[in-house]
Amino acid sequence: KTEDMKVDRVSIYLCVSLQGGVDNEATLTAYITIALLEIPLPVTHSVVRNALFCLETAANQKENHVYTKALLAYAFALAGNRDKRKALLDSLEKEAVRKDGSVHWQRPGKEPETDLPFRRYRAPSAEVEMTAYVLLAQLTSQPAPAQEELASASLIAKWISSQQNPNGGFSSTQ
């Protein structure tokens, strides 16, 4: 009972606009929903149901940022909503950057930097994060991902692994 009360308090924060490291309320709601589904709370839990309703509304907006779409795709994958997951992944596919036999996503209007003579360029952490969320969305599917999704996932994993620093880590995130 106490656990439910704690989780219900989280619902107060869903669909609320906060400032800081979060772009918008859909992004914040997606973060929270992902965390709840990874606990795992069932999709039938009232907090998760309410959050998913908010995310469905957000997913129908045409002007969603690529980062938000990646988060939404993963949230719907965890929730088992195959139709929303597929629609978002199809939309993300149109915005993918294909280069050197790999696939990734970058922020709109952000020109990629080039390699310097003695230093290889690594993407900003936000781009690594959003690409990783797309990868998670592709691999989180019921039933298991299709062969085509696995082939696409390998191209994404190739890009993510190319972003590792010499010690095997990645650039810092928030």
Automatic annotation (TrEMBL):
GO terms for cellular component: extracellular space. It comes from the Eukaryota. SUPFAM superfamilies: Terpenoid cyclases/Protein prenyltransferases. Residues 13-174 form the Alpha-macroglobulin-like TED domain. PANTHER family: ALPHA-2-MACROGLOBULIN (PTHR11412:SF165), MACROGLOBULIN / COMPLEMENT (PTHR11412). This is PZP protein. It comes from Emberiza fucata.
